[in-house]
């Protein structure tokens, strides 16, 4: 089992959420964060570029079976992509143990 965390542009969050739901990945958490940038980052607003220290991101986090991982990653990449180099990133972590509280 894997934990997937996708850090994406907020304007693409609903597209990613809908794509995951349609494919059967319906159990996930979604929240907003601000990510610091290692280099000077510029955001374009109404044709003007402004320097930005913290970039807003939507994070979608969920668990997936090993054999479904590639499908989930493809869905995220396809639905989160805007064509910009800073579209986001996806982290994948191994889950060695999962235990439900109350069972």
Unreliable stretches (pLDDT < 50, length at least 5) are none
Q: Separation of termini? A: 19 Å
Number of helices: 2
The second-level CATH architecture is 2-Layer Sandwich
Mean pLDDT across every amino acid position: 90
- Assembly type of the chains comes to single chain
Tell me, what's the shape? elongated
Largest sheet, strands/sense/barrel: 4 strands, antiparallel
CATH topology: Alpha-Beta Plaits
Query: Count of DSSP E strands?
Result: 4
Q: Quick one: CATH class?
A: Alpha Beta
If strands are numbered along the chain, what order do they take across the biggest sheet?
A: 2-3-1-4
The ordered H/E elements are: EHEEHE
Estimate the helix proportion, in percent. 10-25%
**Helix-strand makeup class:** alpha+beta
Total of domains: 1
Radius of gyration: 15 Å
Write up this protein.
- The chain has helices at 13-22, 69-80, and strands at residues 2-8, 29-45, 48-64, 88-94.
- It has 103 residues and is α+β, with helices and mostly antiparallel strands.
- It has a single domain (2-94), classed as Alpha-Beta Plaits (2-Layer Sandwich), CATH 3.30.70.
- Strands 2-3-1-4 form a 4-stranded antiparallel sheet.
- A hairpin with a 2-residue loop joins strand 2 (29-45) and strand 3.
- Helix 1 (13-22) packs antiparallel against helix 2.
């Amino acid at each position: 089992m894997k934990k997937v965390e996708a850090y994406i542009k907020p304007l693409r969050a609903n597209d990613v959420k809908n794509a995951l739901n349609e494919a059967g990945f319906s159990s996930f958490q979604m929240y907003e964060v601000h990510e610091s940038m290692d280099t000077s980052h510029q955001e374009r607003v109404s044709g003007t570029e402004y320097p930005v220290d913290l970039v807003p991101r939507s994070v979608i986090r969920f668990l997936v079976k090993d054999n479904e991982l590639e499908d989930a990653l493809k869905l995220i990449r396809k639905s989160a992509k805007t064509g910009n180099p800073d579209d986001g990133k996806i982290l994948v972590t191994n889950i060695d143990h999962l235990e439900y509280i109350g069972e």
